[in-house]
Write a structure and sequence with these properties.
By secondary structure, the chain is an alpha/beta fold. It is built from 14 helices and eight strands. The chain folds into two domains: about 1-260, TIM Barrel (Alpha-Beta Barrel), CATH 3.20.20.70; about 270-360, Chorismate Mutase Domain, subunit A, CATH 1.20.59. It is about 55% helix and about 10% strand. It is elongated, with a radius of gyration of 25 Å. The structure holds phosphoenolpyruvate (PEP) and manganese (II) ion (MN). Phosphoenolpyruvate binds near residues 27, 90, 113 and 138. Manganese (II) ion binds near residues 27, 231 and 242.
Amino acid sequence: MQATEQATKEITQQAWSKRPLIISGPCSAETEEQVIQTAQRLAATGRVDMLRAGIWKPRTKPGMFEGVGTKGLPWLQHAKKLTGLPTTVEVATGKQVQDALTFDVDVLWIGARTTVNPFSVQELADALRGVDVPVLIKNPINPDLELWSGAVERVARAGVKQIGLIHRGFSTYGNTEYRNAPMWHLAIEMKLRNPGMMMINDPSHICGRREILQEVAQRAIDLDYDGLMIESHIDPDNAWSDAKQQVTPERLKEMLEAIIWRKEDIPSDEYHAALEKLRQQINQLDDELMQILGQRMKVAELIGNYKRVNNITILQTSRWNEIIERAFLKGDKLGLSKEFITKYFDAVHMESINHQKKIMDS
Ligand code: PEP
Ligand code: MN
């Protein structure tokens, strides 16, 4: 290995293990000038660890700008030489992996539209066999953790040692406040399934518009994400792709400075003692909730008995609506959201129905 190659590997390793890891750069590489200027202005912020740029763009409809292709790779190489920033690009085929590596791209990422397709992921995994390069895997566009896990497994089985996750939200039908619904609970579940694996957040593709980037980025940091990937452009409004969600490098710097960076823990006995006391209260309350839920199911079984001997259906819509309406009223006074009440009562109701069904079948 050449000395310079060794040095960039070390810089990439340093960036990979930095917390928070900040990756930024344009949605798409457009021209050499744009890539280099973006990289230089990002480097000048002193807050960015890695340069991203899309070279091959998977676009929803034909006729849209599909990326400059391989000719953009030397631009990234040049930008790295000028700024020292390691580079990362999205790859979707085995050929793209080879091309990216030929031009010394330091970290590869698998896009959301590729993670959904096991054939494509396997092709990438095969191209990555024996290659010592870190890989970031975005969540699939549909909210399916098995697909996301499957992609991680395919890449890991190919021998890739350094794998990270990117949460970029999930497609939904119709207009919502987001371009891609974050569904935070899914990313949290993925984090719990893969302890120790880096999870970074991509507010740009979740938001789809720059006005709400800040709050989503803060939310991710509050949830102990390891870093952020945020798109930036020297002239966001005229970007060739994703114009609405990009920000200038200087705006990115302001955003990063406004974020309250939280840690998972601090070495303070006082803090730990106070937290421990409150956690014991939570444990106690959780125990009581379980006791009460158990009792509730016993009562539901008694009702089930009456229904059984009188040949009455388990489900009675009017009664259920009455329960939910009561809960909304009470819950509102207790500061519980309608969304939570609905989810909670749906779960309790399903469990009650299952208990009553057992009685019916007995
Ligand atoms: C991108 O990062 O520019 C991109 C295409 O993202 P995603 O795969 O999340 O849609
Ligand atoms: Mn984009």
